[in-house]
Write a structure and sequence with these properties.
The chain is of the alpha+beta class. It has a single domain, classed as Nonspecific Lipid-transfer Protein, Chain A (2-Layer Sandwich), CATH 3.30.1050. The protein is built from six helices and five strands, in the order H-H-E-E-E-E-H-H-E-H-H. Strand 2 and strand 3 form a beta hairpin. The radius of gyration is 13 Å and the shape is globular. It starts with 6 loop residues before the first helix and ends in an 8-residue tail after the last helix.
Length: about 140
């Protein structure tokens, strides 16, 4: 059982992402390229990195100084709740509005206004439920 945001965990998420056409194919249709990082609010650097080219995750692992387009942060308790139970569009909106989910990079508001990005983004959070996760 991989630790949340470890290289093993990020690679399992990569596999889930690439195998879900509602995420990878939909983002591929809009030519989505991005460096996505995840971590904890109280830490300077993110823990994991996820590199997407034309909707497909081409690499994932431990953060190693990459410049993120999207850098998502929350506390460990909230990440684990979302990983275990999932989160939908309304839940993500509440998490963002309440400050539980922070974006150190990336424009959450603009993304959520774009249905071609918002749907796959929400779906990608659901993929995390498929990974057995430890802390």
């Amino acid at each position: 059982m991989p630790e949340l945001f470890s290289a093993d965990w990020m690679n399992e998420l990569k596999d889930e992402w690439n195998n879900d056409p509602d995420v990878s194919a939909k983002l591929g249709e809009i030519g989505f390229d991005s460096v996505i990082t995840c971590g904890y609010k109280d830490e300077e650097n993110p823990r994991g990195v996820f590199v997407v080219e034309k909707g497909i995750c081409v690499s994932a692992g431990d953060y190693d100084g990459e410049t993120p387009d999207w850098d998502m942060r929350a506390n460990q308790k909230d990440w684990l709740k979302w990983v275990n139970k999932g989160i939908g569009m309304a839940g993500l909106g509440m998490a963002y509005a309440s400050g539980k989910l922070k974006f150190k990079s990336g424009d959450y508001g603009a993304m959520m206004k774009n249905p071609k990005m918002a749907g796959p983004f929400v779906k990608s959070f659901g993929l995390m439920k498929n990974i057995d996760t430890s802390v």
